[in-house]
Amino acid sequence: xxxxxxxxxxxxxxxxxxxxxxxxKEFFSRYQSGIYYFLFRYTSDPEAxxxxxxxxxxxxxxxxxxxxxxxxxKAYLYKIARxxxxxxxxxKPPFSSFEENESxxxxxxNNPQLDYERLFLLDECQKAINLLPERCKATFILSVYEGLxxxxxxxxxxxxxxxVKNQMNKAFTVLRKHMSKYID
Length: 184
Description:
Blueprint: H1 9-17, H2 21-43, H3 46-62, H4 73-91, H5 102-107, H6 112-131, H7 134-145, H8 150-157, H9 161-179
Helix pairs in contact: 1-2, 2-3, 2-4, 2-7, 3-4, 4-8, 6-9, 7-8, 7-9, 8-9
C-alpha cells in the first residue's frame, strides 16, 4: 500500500503562494466539505452553498500572495466564506423548510412519523438559528457545526475571545428558549 505524505498546512500555503496548483487542489480537498457545510448552515440553500464554496476558494486563490502562515489560513478561508454568505443573505433572504421535500423524505423512510418529527425538529432548530443576530449565528455555526475552537472563531470573526464566549451563551439562551416548547 502506498502511503502519501500529507503536507502540513504551512507547507501547503507556501506552495500555493508560489502558484502550485497541485498544492491548492490538496488544500481544496481538505477544506471544501467543511466550507460547504458552513455555508449551507449559514444560507440554508444547498445550491447557494455549492456556488459560494467555489467562490470562496477562488477568492482564496486570487489573494494567495497576501496570505502568510501567521494569518491562520483556515481562519482566513472561513472569513471569506462568511463574508460571501453575508453578501448572499443581503441579496436574497434565506428561508428553508423541509416541506418542499417532505413527501420524498417520508416515502424513503421505514418510520415516516418518526422521520417527520425529526425533520420538523431540525427545521425548527434551523429557524431558531436563523433568528440569531449575525455575529451570534456565525459564532454558533463555527463552534457547533464546524468544530472550531473559541480562539479560532475569535480570529475568523475578528473579535475578542470573551465576545465569542458571550455570543455562544446568547445563542444557547435563544435556542433553548425557542426549542423549549418541543422538549419535555
